[in-house]
Amino acid sequence: MRGISVTETAPARGSAPMILDRAAVAVRGLCKRFGRIDAVRDVSLTIPCGITYGLLGPNASGKTTLLRVLAGVLKPDSGEVRALGLAPGEEMRQQTGYMPQATGIWDQMTVWENMRCFAGIQGVTSKAQMEEALELVGLKDQMHRVVRDLSIGMQRRASLACALVHRAPLLLLDEPTIGVDLAVRVHFWEHFRRLNEEGVTIVLSTHAMDEAERCHRLGIMREGRLLAEGTPDELREGSGTSSLEDAFLHLVEERIAPA
Amino acid sequence: MHLPRILRVAQCRATLIFYRDVRALWVVLMVPVATVLLVGYVMRNTTGGLTMALVVEGDHWATVDTASYIEESLHSDDIATLRVSERGAAEKLVRSGEADGFVVIDDAFARGVLGGERQTVSVGLKGDSLGTDSRLERALGHALTTAPLEVFRKATGAEPLPTGGPFEFATTYQYGGEEYDDLDHVFPSLLAFVAFLSILTITLVGVTRARWLQAIERLMATALRRSEFVLGSMLGDGAVAVIQVIAVLLVAVFVLRVHHTGNLGLIFLLTLITSVGALNLGIFLSAFARSESEAMQMLPLVLVPQFVLGGVLFPLESLPPALGVVARFMPMTYSVSALRDVMIKGQGLFDAGVISDLAVMVAFATFFVVLGVRTLRREVA
Fold this sequence. Notes:
The complex is a heterodimer of chains A (259) and B (381). Chain A is of the alpha/beta class and 259 residues long. Helices cover 40% and strands 22% of the residues of chain A.
């Protein structure tokens, strides 16, 4: 419901096609360069509301850069970006929850102190809402522990809680499950499903094929380009392989050989 | 501008330093307090340890008396003496390290004193330490202005001739006063430098760490504005600076009993603004460091020029003109100058020197805030 209500508040502009405003994420011809490295090259992508979208790709394929652009942290060199119908800016950032790839929280403070800081900055004042976010990631009973004393998986959970706390309709999660144990990962994905049902859109990057399998749609990236896009089934069929892993390797390696 | 968000950032910075980062608290409280205490103690107690050899050549009564008077005067300046009968022996003592210098008193000198003539005295100094040499020279200068006078009086029963003879100084001080010792004169610059150094270190390193952890990246992905982040960090670290300045001033006033003629509140204000300028500089510089170790490497680059040219090590007036121009672009210059004006000259807020220095300090602090906001902008859409 939350996600939908926000797309409705975004006025449909006359010139832009409807799909751009209705989609959770709409990207046209996005390019981002760092010095001489083209991190993202001419990516166009539309992600409908209420699904989990997985970004797959080898290291340095541009997944993180794409997420950072969507989070409003990086400015694209060219191309158009809309998240929930909003152009990058303060209002768009208010509607997104971003979980960076690194720790993303202060490791010398406790989980609770971090939560209080990020929740407060994102306009959440209710203590119950903060505790709820910690409960969702299973950290409520550990919330007074200092972050760097926690395992990497628990640190990821704390970071995720800080991205969830303000109940944004669009979540941008950069490898959210790295180092997270299997039980908690299953728990994460159950929660992602529930959020999807509420209308929340999740865009995440991952290297795990079982997680990719759970995404509604996938985008496979390499060297800054979006090579293929579709549901896991579509990707398997398109590459004529029986497993997603083979499809992924097929796609990524096929394009490495000069066409 | 959204005040609650600014306060959240401030709370976060203050929580980190006060509760969570023990080393930061050490740097911000113990380093300045310990530095001031140590420097204060050393400057007030650099007494023993120096030895002067007296070469007494001859047996004229005036020679013997002059030597005794000099000995007495050196002892009163806490310098030990050794008597030898020839120059060679004294040189050997200096080379072996048993003495730090020598002075030759012979019959010719003593007769000259009795005749009221201007004299040349042979003095040998070790020459390997500026501090030692100048202390010995000062003590000898003192001894040699008084000892011949005593001998002359004893010999003639009359006061020395008004010209040609040695003089006693009757000095009055425009500022400070006779009770102002070395520490009192050094303290304003020490205070400014220590306040600058410690808060710059923790802000620069702390903000760089937050950047490295991508906590700042996450903040930049929220509705938080860049200016809100910089102002919040300034408030949080500024609160730490307030505690720091209070601690240092308490130690200075109640433990070291540093003399100050100016208003203590004004001294506090000037030191605090020095710290705020430094921490704003730290936030700005953190944009150029990718890790804490890179941040640490920046510190000497920023601190050494200000230490050398900012009036801490050498008085500003003694700088070569070209470097004097460079010094004008350093915040330290204005902090040291304002604190000296207040603490030693007893000037008030509205004296021309103080108010203009304060204006420049505030301008620097504001300038660094603007730079800090602008360098955050580079990264953010």
